[in-house]
Write a structure and sequence with these properties.
The chain is of the alpha/beta class and 383 residues long. It is built from 14 helices and 14 strands. The strands form two sheets. Strands 3-2-1-4-5-6-7 form a seven-stranded parallel β-sheet, with helices on both faces. Helix 7 crosses helix 12. The model has no long low-confidence stretch (mean pLDDT 94).
Length: 383
């Protein structure tokens, strides 16, 4: 690493793949390298997002991530030993980890190295991230032990912190630092959405899986008497199922699967409304990115993130089959396709509301720009 004229920071993650946490890491690295000597430490050599020049990269293993369970256990021991050695050898002052597994390893390192400040980051709603009895056991037993060994924790939602405190026994200081965003150069002109249209061009983006609940969109379009041109971007294991459901509902002219695309912003720019229909989120990057483009937005009122983004976290009550007009967007109950259908129809029939919420989306997104979030992040890790 570079001569120690600045503090040494290590960022620990499983990969720098295409997930939301990895995107946050990539953005923060751009600012961190200006103030610190930064090392990015990954379990696996899977890199999707750009790594800025000047950041040291250390890969802990060349083994594939999908090995047999007993081999994964051996790998875990290697990760602990190699990361501990890396932190000690490179005189790391601050070790910051993202996601549960790296967080546990950071807690173990903290147990044996009292000199390093260990900061962990939870990125998903913990109670909903437990996918099996084994992971539930690991979370309930090891979170209180090793998370509490660390100096402090930050997440991207007040609900995540509350869940960690109430259900997992985490007692270290916790703060909320929302995901940063780089504001796009091209945005929608709000006035352009204030036109009458026969078909509303709506869009969503996300992995095609049960948690993202895109079937809710298909059912909502079917329930409406209005015409839509709805694009569902993303790939995943439910692609065939969703294709079949579109066909069964005879909505081929109204709903299409756009697949995985790199130029998501181009699709957003040509749309008139964005919909998020997830059962659960850590923090909905797709929703924030749509707002930054200037799209009026509708979201399920899931934990966590949408209420914070669209209504400044003020509590609301939504009747079944209805929607709520929030400060920065519309909210519907989880898995309520009738409520979603009515919310979509509201934007369809009211072009002036599309213009209004386009302006509000642009205004709200500015609060999450990289410079603002990094300033809070730097203060947090230094305090």
């Amino acid at each position: 690493m570079a001569p120690k004229t600045k503090k040494n920071i290590a960022i620990l993650s499983i990969t720098l793949g295409s997930g939301g946490a990895e995107k946050v890491i990539s953005l923060l690295l751009k600012e961190l390298k200006k103030d610190y000597n930064v090392a990015l430490v990954l379990f696996h050599n899977s890199i999707h997002f750009p790594i800025p020049d000047g950041v040291t990269v250390k890969i802990l293993s060349n083994n594939p991530p999908d090995r047999a369970f007993y081999l994964k256990f051996v790998d875990t021991l290697r990760y602990i030993f190699r990361y501990y050695r890396f932190v000690k050898h490179n005189k790391i002052d601050i070790s910051i980890s993202f996601l549960a597994f790296p967080n546990l390893i950071n807690g173990i390192v903290s147990t044996f190295n009292k000199k390093v400040k260990t900061i962990i980051s939870e990125r998903g709603f913990p109670s909903d991230n437990v996918t099996s009895k084994l992971s539930f056991y690991i979370s309930k037993v090891f979170y209180p032990i090793f998370y509490n060994k660390c100096t402090k924790l930050f997440s991207n939602s007040v609900y995540i912190n509350n869940d960690l405190r109430d259900n997992f026994g985490v007692k270290i200081p916790m703060e909320v630092i929302y995901n940063p965003i780089e504001l796009p150069e091209r945005t929608i002109v709000p006035k352009s959405l204030n036109t009458t249209t026969e078909k509303l061009r709506a869009i969503t983006a996300g992995t095609l899986n049960k948690r993202k609940n895109q079937i809710m969109i298909i059912r909502a379009v079917k329930a409406s008497r209005l015409d839509y041109d709805f694009t569902i971007l993303g790939g995943g294991n439910l692609e065939d199922y969703l294709t079949e459901e579109i066909s069964k509902a005879k909505l081929e002219a109204s709903v299409s699967l756009g697949g995985r695309v790199k130029n998501v912003n181009d699709y957003l720019l040509s749309s008139q409304c964005f919909v998020l229909c997830s059962f659960t989120e850590g923090f909905p990057n797709a929703l924030l990115e749509a707002m930054a483009i200037g799209l009026p937005c509708i979201s399920s009122n899931c934990l966590s993130g949408p209420l914070e983004l669209l209504n400044e976290n003020d509590e609301i009550t939504i009747s079944d089959g209805e929607f709520y007009i929030g400060k920065y967007g519309l909210l519907v109950n989880n898995d309520d396709h009738i409520g979603l259908s009515k919310a979509m129809d509201y934007f369809h029939k009211n072009p002036d509301e599309r213009e209004k919420y386009s302006k509000l989306s642009l205004e709200r997104a500015k609060q999450y720009n990289l410079e603002n979030i990094y300033a809070k992040f730097k203060h947090f890790i230094e305090s």
